[in-house]
Amino acid sequence: MESAEIRRRWLRFFEERGHTVVPSASLIADDPTLLLVPAGMVPFKPYFLGEVKPPFATATSVQKCVRTPDIEEVGKTTRHGTFFQMCGNFSFGDYFKEGAIRYAWELLTSSQEAGGYGLDPERLWITVYLDDDEAESIWREKIGVPAERIQRLGKKDNFWSMGVPGPCGPCSEINYDRGPEFGAEGGPAVNDERYVEIWNLVFMQYERGAGDGKEDFPILGDLPAKNIDTGLGLERLAMILQGVQNMYETDTLRVVMDTATELTGVRYGTAHNTDVSLRVVADHMRTSVMLIGDGVTPGNEGRGYVLRRIMRRAIRNMRLMGATEPVVARLVDTVISTMGLQYPELETDRKRIETVALAEEAAFLKTLRAGTNILDTAVGETKAAGSAVLPGDKAFQLHDTYGFPIDLTLEMAAEQGVTVDEDGFRRLMKEQRDRAKADAKAKKMGHADVSAYREVADRAGATDFLGYTSNETEAT
Ligand code: ATP
Ligand code: MG
Ligand code: MG
Ligand code: MG
Q1: pLDDT (tens digit, 9 = 90+) per residue, 425-450?
Q2: Which residues form the Alanyl-transfer RNA synthetases family profile domain (predicted)?
């Protein structure tokens, strides 16, 4: 079943059951606490928090999501992308636990002829929160899932809250057993690659207090209106329904890998390293196009930096596979052609997206040309001196003179078996920043133009990369 059909069926199923179909919101969250939208519930947050009265009692959507904290997993696990689409159904004080569980089971297991996804019920494993006896008894008694396929998980996996006082509650997740070729049996509690999580049902039923830690907070009582928030990964379901081994082999990502193959001559399935690179390219180029489509432009801070890092990582992986010419035009073209079926605005915006992407590629290739020899020489000298740690001042020089961000230096050094003295690098960065500040202050007192210094300080500040992983919470 194609991704487009999975999406259509999802929306139709819930629409037929009275849910209002809400189009995906932009990836740029209308929410100061978030850099990018990581989950389907984000556009509905004000309703869940009781800040705004919802215009409908139930809703459904397929939301574009970006989770930059998952970047390290990309291409290595079979099921994490930086961009993915979260199918969701939501209830604002309407149906609760039993309703959500019944809908999920019906949609997943009813036959494809009847409009469902036709999954084999015997392959579905359920997790519930430690003390959620209510959910477990619904699964067992009302749905008929045998006790041995229901497992209990703790707060980290199966309890949801927004990290602040307000609504919270237990989750129940539906996992699909992909069979012994994915490793040991024993259920999702022991093997999450074999028993892949596909759908998370969040039961918002309590009000929490502040507490002292992230997972340690008091439950103050029941919410006046209980809500449902669910999220199913479209790419994960596609992977199962298309009978492929990982999400990069599904219809919308496979074609991007194929374009990367045409550009590099590297075929998928020949070696582990290049397979990871092909997946990284497919994922990152898609994420880049979706971000540019929603108005993000490459830059040194915040969202712009997320985009820059992801796009440059894709280009680097293409070069690791042997590409020597620009590659972005072809890759962007493929992404737009496949994603444009579900997001037609990509087609109408094609020219602008290409222009932004090509400019970033040109800037990066210039940086690479300038810095790569310097880095290689420094690595050679480090090794010749019998060390495996590149000195901090080399990393600093690469950054300061050649515009190499530290993570690029780290990655390229690691490829040659060398680590980097990051503390030394950061010390030098800080010294430079302090100097710039002091100079700026002195000049300011003399009423001189400080803009040049501000530029230095901004550049230096951008390499702390804090915006990259902070400001991101996983909302579902
Ligand atoms: P996992 O444990 O596999 O990392 P999660 O518990 O972080 O997933 P949720 O926050 O519960 O995921 O999100 C709801 C659903 O979205 C998941 O059940 C999964 O199907 C999908 N999903 C989450 N993260 C990703 C990702 N990085 N790439 C693709 N799909 C994802
Ligand atoms: Mg996760
Ligand atoms: Mg999980
Ligand atoms: Mg989950």
Answers
A1: 999 999 988 988 888 777 656 544 33
A2: 1-476
Which one of 162, 236, 287 would you pick to mutate in the ligand 1 pocket, going by the greatest count of ligand atoms within 8 A of its CB?
236
State pLDDT tens for residues 155-177.
989 999 887 888 899 999 999 99
Give 453's pLDDT tier (boundaries 50, 70, 90): very low
Atom of ligand 1 nearest to the CA of 83: 28
Q: What is the pTM of this model?
A: 0.87
Q: Which of 47-56, 204-213, 273-282 has the lowest mean pLDDT?
A: 204-213
Pick the residue whose CA is nearest to atom 30 on ligand 1: 233
84 lines ligand 1 (CB under 6 A): yes
SS3 annotation, the chain: CCHHHHHHHHHHHHHHCCCEECCCCCCCCCCCCCCCCCCCCHHHHHHHCCCCCCCCCEEEEEEEEECHHHHHHCCCCCCCCCEEEEEEEEEECCCCHHHHHHHHHHHHHCCCCCCCCCCCHHHEEEEEECCCHHHHHHHHHHHCCCHHHEEEECHHHHEEECCCCEEEEEEEEEEEECCHHHCCCCCCCCCCCCEEEEEEEEEEEEEECCCCCCCCCCEEEEEEEEEEEEEEEHHHHHHHHCCCCCHHHCHHHHHHHHHHHHHHCCCCCCCHHHHHHHHHHHHHHHHHHHHHHCCCCCCCCHHHHHHHHHHHHHHHHHHHCCCCCCCHHHHHHHHHHHHCCCCCHHHHCHHHHHHHHHHHHHHHHHHHHHHHHHHHHHHHHHHHCCCCEECHHHHHHHHHHHCCCHHHHHHHHHHCCCEECHHHHHHHHHHHHHHHHHHHHHHHHCCCCCHHHHHHHHHHHHCCCHHHHCCCCCCC
Ligand 1 pocket member 129 (CB < 6 A)? no
Pocket of ligand 1 contains residue 80 by CB under 6 Å: yes
CB of 64 shorter than 6 A to ligand 1: no
- pLDDT value of position 402: 81
pLDDT at site 444:
58
Q: Nearest C-alpha to atom 29 of ligand 1 is from which residue?
A: 80
Among all bound ligands, the one having the nearest atom to the CA of 70 is 1
CA of 235 to the centre of ligand 4 (A): 14
- CA-nearest residue, atom 19 of ligand 1: 233
Which amino acid residue places its CA nearest to atom 26 of ligand 1? 80
Residue 470 pLDDT more than 50?
A: no
